[in-house]
Amino acid sequence: MKSRTPAIPVQILILTALLLSTLIARLDFAHGQAQSLVDQAKKEGEVVLYTTMNVSDFAVFGPAIKEKYPFLNVRHVYLSSSRQVARVIQEHRAGRIQGDVLGNSMETMDYYKSQGVLARYESPEAKFLLKGFVDPDGYWACITTDPLITGFNTREYSRSSAPRNYDDYLNPKFKGQMAINSGTPYGLIGIVSLRGEEQGIAYMKRLGQQNLRPVEGFNHLTNLLVAGEFPIAIFMQVSKMDGMKRKGAPVDWLASPPTLATTSTVGLVQNPLHPAAARLLIDFYLSPEGQQALTRTGKIPLRKGVKSQSEEIDLLLKSEKLHVIRPVGDTSRYFRLYSEFLGVR
Hints:
CATH architecture of the largest domain: 3-Layer(aba) Sandwich
Number of domains: 2
Shape: globular
Helix content: 40-55%
Structural class: alpha/beta
Number of helices: 12
CATH class of the largest domain: Alpha Beta
Distance between the termini: 94 Å
Number of strands: 12
Low-confidence stretches: 25-31
Strand content: 15-25%
CATH topology of the largest domain: D-Maltodextrin-Binding Protein, domain 2
Mean pLDDT: 90
Oligomer: single chain
CATH superfamily of the largest domain: Periplasmic binding protein-like II
Radius of gyration: 24 Å
């Protein structure tokens, strides 16, 4: 006898058909929304971007936008973080911010959020980012990250002898051996957000007794480490270290779990002059094309499936052992404390 294939119940067939029709309707709706946004952006023609991204990096990023959206003119306004804040707040108080999209650090974005500068915009691309890099209230999304690691000169230290975690920084044998960026308190804010106010500040006070060498800026810190001016750089941007390592410089790096991570972030201003184009630009930042363009500038992307220029960095991101540095309390106070710990006036 021939075996008979069991009949599929009619109810299951109906339910499957309903689910498929619902899914198709949702996809059609999403496609329609995206097309509507593009059509509106075409009418607006331009978008104004206030960002800390420098001109040379935008020379790579800008053409990628133009390739996908030839009709869109992005007016790139480069401003340092502090200058951008001053300009944005001044324009906000005057009644209209002239920029449509703001790009800055997460702590600056949270400040803008608290001042009523930003509007909510939950980009459909945001769901593809790594966990923890989107504002839960929908006011900003991170576009790149830069974990803070221990960099060391391989002529002085090996991977087995270099400090492997934050508590190792307090070991007396490393006293006078370590340098740190004096221009930003990322290390202090990160440790406070990781361990709490009391323990974090107590830790930094002890670290300040290690005769740290303060150096202004991550680029300068990197160059001096490569030149052998000091053997160790702590709370160092991994992008700088890994880039020099891949070029053959005598440096390497180690990550301390959980690894503190800084971010670059974008957000939409309230009542933008070019609302559709502004949303389209934010979508592009988070899209595969936008993330790949940022990678070509040496940045570390946050979209799942988009690789950085380094396999080691990609493995660090996949480990999910990052602790995203979030602002805690009065950041100006931490700048003052940080300078005191380092003996910088």
